[in-house]
TrEMBL record:
Species of provenance: Aureobasidium pullulans (Black yeast)
InterPro entries: Aldolase_TIM, OxRdtase_FMN_N, Oye-like
Pfam families: Oxidored_FMN
Boundaries of every NADH:flavin oxidoreductase/NADH oxidase N-terminal domain copy: 7-241
Protein name: NADH:flavin oxidoreductase/NADH oxidase family protein
GO molecular function: FMN binding; NADPH dehydrogenase activity
Length: 286
């Protein structure tokens, strides 16, 4: 008897076919070593979830693309050989269980832990502009043109390492929740007046250049994107995000990505909230 829903029917996502339309969202676990290498606990965690319903897509926790992209204690990376090999062992377990896995590419910007970043790179916090995440917080330095281009290249290198070395089925670009890409997209943080800010088009540029680098590295059929137009997490929400995100989302047609993941307005990081100020219907209508 039909239930009237397609939720449990197969769905083709890029080059893979899922057993249903339910996927595991990215969840930060803080279980990697201080060198940002996953241990046996991480392998067990993903293997268990892959085996629960074979044919499921798992999206990993945020994974740092490079040391200079910002870091936190015990989050995984994808920029050293040891990190890549640890992820490969996890990917192998997921595939053995009959499921699929995308790596979430993550750059923190001003949301990094300053002491971790300083210890590992000797660098201060960096962001699109010298705007702290919260009143009284650490003021980041504005990224230079050279540094911006280096970070874009880091996204491409990280995507290549994930797919071509660790064996991931694809990658998700984390452009949401007030992290680095979002810090360029939204005018609450981006106060630049060069080609990386000052207008809707220019504020979209960093995200689009990152997407271009990642697609060039692994192919459009292996790339998803996460956005959060309404999130107030980490002090990022614009007064009216619709014009900015309408431009950014419309620009995605050029790339033909595997999927676009939009966080609902009722979500603030890991919590439900009472924010009813907006909805994602504008994106569906584009």
């Amino acid at each position: 008897m039909s239930t009237g829903t397609r939720l449990f029917t197969p769905l083709k996502v890029g080059a893979i076919e899922l057993s249903s339309r339910i996927a595991m969202a990215p969840l930060t676990r803080y279980r990697a070593s201080e060198d940002h290498v996953h241990q046996d606990l991480g392998k067990t965690y993903y293997a268990q979830r892959a085996a629960a319903v074979p044919g499921t897509l798992l999206i990993t926790e945020g994974t740092i693309i490079s040391a200079k992209a910002g870091n936190q204690h015990n989050v995984p990376g994808i920029y050293t050989q040891e990190q890549i090999e640890a992820w490969k062992s996890i990917v192998d377990e997921v595939h053995k269980a009959g499921s699929y896995i995308y790596l979430q590419l993550w750059a923190l910007g001003r949301a990094a832990e300053p002491e971790v970043l300083s210890k590992e790179t000797g660098l201060p916090l960096k962001s699109s502009s010298a705007v702290p995440m919260e009143e009284g917080g650490v003021v980041p330095e504005e990224l230079s043109e050279e540094e911006i281009l280096e970070l874009i290249a880091d996204f491409g290198r990280a995507a290549s390492a994930a797919v071509h070395q660790a064996g991931f089925d694809g990658v998700e670009i984390h452009a949401a929740n007030g992290y680095l890409i979002d810090q360029f997209t939204q005018d609450t943080c981006n106060k630049r007046n060069d080609k990386w800010g000052g207008s809707i088009k220019n504020r979209s540029r960093f995200a689009l250049e990152v997407i271009k680098a990642v697609v060039n590295a692994v192919g459009k059929e292996k790339v998803g994107l996460r956005l959060s137009p309404w999130s107030s997490f980490q002090g990022i929400k614009m007064e009216d995000p619709i014009p900015q995100f309408s431009h950014l989302i419309s620009s995605l047609r050029t790339f033909g990505l595997t999927y676009l993941y939009l966080v609902e307005s009722r979500i603030a990081r890991a919590s439900d909230c009472n924010d009813s100020s907006g909805a994602n219907g504008f994106a569906i209508d584009l």
